[in-house]
Amino acid sequence: MISPMKSRSLSDNSSAMGIRNGSKRQHPAKPIFILLLLIFTPRVDSSWWYIGALGARVICDNIPGLVNKQRQLCQRHPDMMQSISEGAKEWIKECQHQFRHHRWNCSTLDRDHTVFGRVMLRSSREAAFVYAISSAGVVYAITRACSQGELKICNCDGLKRGQARDEKGNFDWGGCSDNVNYGIKFAKAFVDAREKMVRDARALMNLHNNRCGRMAVKRFMKLECKCHGVSGSCSLRTCWLAMSDFRRTGDYLRKKYNTAIEVTMNQDGTGFMVADKDFQGTTKNELVYVENSPDYCVRDRMAGSLGTAGRVCNKSSRGTDGCEVMCCGRGYDTMRVKRVTKCECKFKWCCAVECKDCEDVVDVHTCKPHRRPDWLDIT
To answer: Residue 30, exposed/middle/buried by CB under 10 A (0-12, 13-18, 19+)?
Structure first.
């Protein structure tokens, strides 16, 4: 199958220019590159996202844009940074799953420490979702690592003791409950550190959405039990709390994205006011945004939009993945491609499944580019 076009960095030209300029001076290239990243890093980006790209090579001093508190936590807990690195890959993958059929598809940029590029500079619904899902991802990664004994500073939740009751009757607390409260505590300290240095509308928005993401993980904690008794009668139960699959958190935050609330900063700069004066309710558990989203139809370097040219669309769908919506009315191209799938699978004793490779020809539809050539795209 043909997949959507791989996004390339919007800052390739500026990065290349920086390297060329640096080569004229008698300095090592790497420090100059790091310095340029720091100089041109917008305040609102979360450069800790780049930890996911660094993986096991995480070196706290080489992550551009970390504030002092984040750098101190990184140096103090390198094992946690490794967990956050793995978690970053998961939440980015989840973001791309949730928006795979939308004009903005959570595209990441190669070799770009901001990960998502300039699209995160706007205080939009998309930024609200990314901050929430990334904060949730840190909670999930740290909590899981604690329960699996991968971290020196934490382990299972040892506070749950004694008896409790649910709809099935009494049970004893035991086993290894996921220590989600510790995950939330660390995520708040690490992720919120940058935003707490400034008090403007964007910082308040990020802090709010970060909290929504953290609490979303806790919302889906589930009770898991082991039965004890004669012949599995389950006359006695030992239970513990465990995190649900991260997909549930992603689905929940995706719904919150759909119902995100536009807000404005209040006069004393301490909180939000809902833009819609007729709004009834609370924003406590809702994602909030300050600015409308950019037009993701056309490639726009200033806004960070990659456009939808070349994206695969569904000709028969009337939803967001349909060619009419995805291609923004520009039309689409169709090509016939061979697709190989597994078929006629049979179970072979014991214990394997054998399948044949079947070929069929399918039509793949991709969005036409904007009528203007690339050099005339909005800059």
So the answer is: exposed
**Distance separating alpha carbons of residues 280 and 274, to the nearest angstrom:** 10
- Cross-strand bridge partners of residue 156: none
Tell me the residue type at 235: S
For β-strands 236-242 and 169-173, DSSP reports them as parallel
Stated pTM of the model: 0.80
Q: How many CB atoms lie within 10 A of CB 112?
A: 21
Other CB atoms within 10 A of residue 379 CB: 8
CA dihedral over 305, 306, 309, 312, signed as positive or negative: negative
Is residue 236 a contact partner of residue 228, using CB atoms and an 8 Å limit?
A: yes
Q: What mean pLDDT do residues 104-121 have?
A: 85
Beta strands in the chain (DSSP E): 163-166, 169-173, 222-228, 236-242, 261-265, 272-274, 288-289, 299-300, 305-306, 312-313, 332-348, 352-367
3-state secondary structure of 317: coil
Closest C-alpha among 184, 268, 175 to residue 223: 175
Spatial contact of 288 and 260, defined as CB atoms under 8 Å apart: yes
CA angle 204, 205, 209 (to 5 degrees): 115
Q: Which two tokens stand for residue 352?
A: 């394997």
CA 372 to chain centre: 33
Strand partners of residue 223:
241
Burial 232-270 (b: 16+ CB within 10 A, else e): eeeeebebbbbbeebeebbbbbbebbeebbbbebeeeee
The torsion angle over the Cα atoms of residues 67, 70, 73 and 79, rounded to 10 degrees, is: -130
pLDDT per position as a tens digit, 197-209: 888 899 999 999 9
Domain spanning 308-379: which CATH class is it, in words? alpha beta
Residue 187 in this model has a pLDDT that exceeds 80: yes
Digit-coded pLDDT (tens) for 36-65: 333 333 444 566 676 665 554 556 777 777
Contact 365/334 with Cβ under 8 angstroms? yes
Which long-range CB contacts under 8 A does 269-276 form with residues at least 24 apart? 269/199, 269/200, 270/199, 271/204, 272/204, 272/205, 272/208
Radius of gyration of the chain (CA): 24
- Tell me the domain boundaries of the chain: 12-292, 308-379
